Amino acid sequence: MAYPEATVAAPLARPLISRRTRDVLTGYAYLIPAAVCLGGTIAFPILKAIHMSLYRHVLFRPQEYGFIGLGNYGRLLRDEVFWLTLWNSFIWVAGSVSLQFLGGFAAALLLHQAFRGRALVRTVTLLPWVIPGVVVALVWEWLYQPNYGVINDLLLRLGLLTERVAWLSDPALAMPAVIATNVWRGVPFFAIMLLAGLQAIPDELYEAALVDGASVLHRFWHITLPLLRPIIVVATATRIVWTFNYADLIFVMTSGGPANATQITSTYTLLQAYSDLDFGYAATLSVVLLVIMLVFTTAYLRVTRGIESVA
């Protein structure tokens, strides 16, 4: 009986990289398109703003263009208007977000109840949110108009005013007036967010509390608020960042006036860039705004780290 000639298997060539390393590199390769997009749309503008903030770059004085290091930042520290706009920004954010939250919470509690025509009321509640900010500003600018505005007319008819008021021309009234407009537009945001949270709370919790004799306030304080807390934190933080950078409304209604009474830092940045054509200083203001928001975001992430796990 003849046996086939035995052969010796040749050793396979050792790959240059291991399979594990190849899998890891393949995973990173899939991230390259996203990294390129994020780098082009986020990282590059930020780096460009930081670069511009180090130069004197006034468009109508090209002969003065040049590197000045931290000169724009030194100018910012001495700029009294900047500190005023920063203070106005905090008033603008605190007034707008707190009142939007209260109004949105009340609207969410109302819309959560069952009543005839609820779908129509929900749709109407959303209208201020879907209208563009510039349109809202133009409409409310007309409503505040001292001679033929509806607000003055109504208040005079109700006897709450004895003479017409120039709401947007009075430094003491201009900021409350623009905050009221922003509250009108922002209430639906909180209403939508909180209504979604209310609808996710099981009815059994309220029924059990009712059997135990808990009052309406106790059910609200011990059931509704704790279960809505993650949504409240996320919605409030989002709205604070949004409002801090929201310049459209004020820019259209008052352009920061009168006498900088409604000038917030974001509108001041726009004026420096597109009115004074000082792009170097505008970039400096943008970088400072970015730092303020980064500090706030870091604090927010620390605060919400434990709260998000409650959901």
Describe the structure.
- The chain is mostly helical and 311 residues long.
- Helix content is 71%, strand content 1%.
- The protein is built from 12 helices and 2 strands.
- It has helices at 19-53, 71-78, 80-112, 118-130, 133-143, 150-158, 171-199, 203-211, 216-244, 248-253, 265-274, 279-307, and strands spanning 55-56, 66-67.
- A two-stranded antiparallel ribbon has the order 1-2.
- The longest helix is centred in the first third of the chain and has 35 residues, at 19-53.
- The radius of gyration is 29 Å and the shape is flat.
- The model has no long low-confidence stretch (mean pLDDT 87).
Summarize the structure.
With 311 residues, the chain is an all-alpha fold. It contains twelve helices and two strands, in the order αββααααααααααα. Helices cover 71% and strands 1% of the residues.
Per-chain topology:
Layout: H1 19-53, E1 55-56, E2 66-67, H2 71-78, H3 80-112, H4 118-130, H5 133-143, H6 150-158, H7 171-199, H8 203-211, H9 216-244, H10 248-253, H11 265-274, H12 279-307
Antiparallel strand pairs: 1-2
What is the oligomeric state here?
Answer: single chain
What share of the residues does DSSP label as strand, in percent?
Answer: under 5%
Instruction: Sum up the overall morphology in one term.
Output: flat
Describe the largest sheet.
2 strands, antiparallel
Q: How do the strands line up in the largest sheet?
A: 1-2
Question: Runs with pLDDT <50, length 5+?
Answer: none
- The portion of residues assigned to helices is over 70%
